[in-house]
Amino acid sequence: MLETQVVKKRPAPPKARSKKRRQDDESGSRKRRKPTAYEEDEEYLDLDAGVNKKIALVDNLLLADHLAKKIRRFGTELKPVELSQLDISPNYITDTTSFQEIRTLENLPNFLEKFADPKKLGEAPKQNGSPHTLIVTGAGLRAADLVRSVRKYQTKNNTIAKLFAKHIKLEESVQFLEKHRTGIAVGTPVRLSDLVDKSALKLDKLERLVVDASHIDQKKRGVMDMKETMLPLARWLARHEFKERYADPEKGLQLLFY
User: Fold this and answer.
1) What share of the chain is helix, strand, coil (3-state, %, to 5)?
2) pLDDT per residue over 219-258, tens digit each?
């Protein structure tokens, strides 16, 4: 009986990969998704301190560009001419990068005293409701914290004004300004604008606008990171009373981002 001879076939050699495919495979593991602008800024966000440290590092040119981008991001319903009217020139913004301390509530007085006469911060113009310094922030609770941080400047003739909607009616703020001398006022954009429109908050003696720009909440959002706060802020900063004075050599108005 003949033994059946079994011929085993050799397995076919694997197909050679093209050079392009080999390069793609080799580089594939090294490819990374390009981080978004938000993710690139993560390293600057200090949640423990509640501060976006990047604000302290950018000069007036970069800040003006940052504002313009935020305005266009949130102002999609606005016409081009309306968007341009909200833009702030770099020449309007005071460069504050020389202030090296972390921008917390505790260091706000030091910041103010670096860019203003410390003695005058404790004084108030004789006309009621006519502050020399306005600090603007995004929410009432934050405004209350800011008021406490500058309480050291309050005297018998210089009351720190709380100008925000949280538990304070508009008419109450009007009456307060009519009856009190105030050197420093803290408020939110919409309430401040309403008080100016009612002629209760007077801007004749105003020397500086301070934007609470570095503060972030637990969701890592600051006043310029939300549509509901950024657009009112932009409209406030772009009021014609301010734009006429930002670069005026005689009646200059400081625009400071803290």
Assistant:
1) 40, 10, 50
2) 999 999 999 999 999 999 999 999 999 989 888 999 999 9
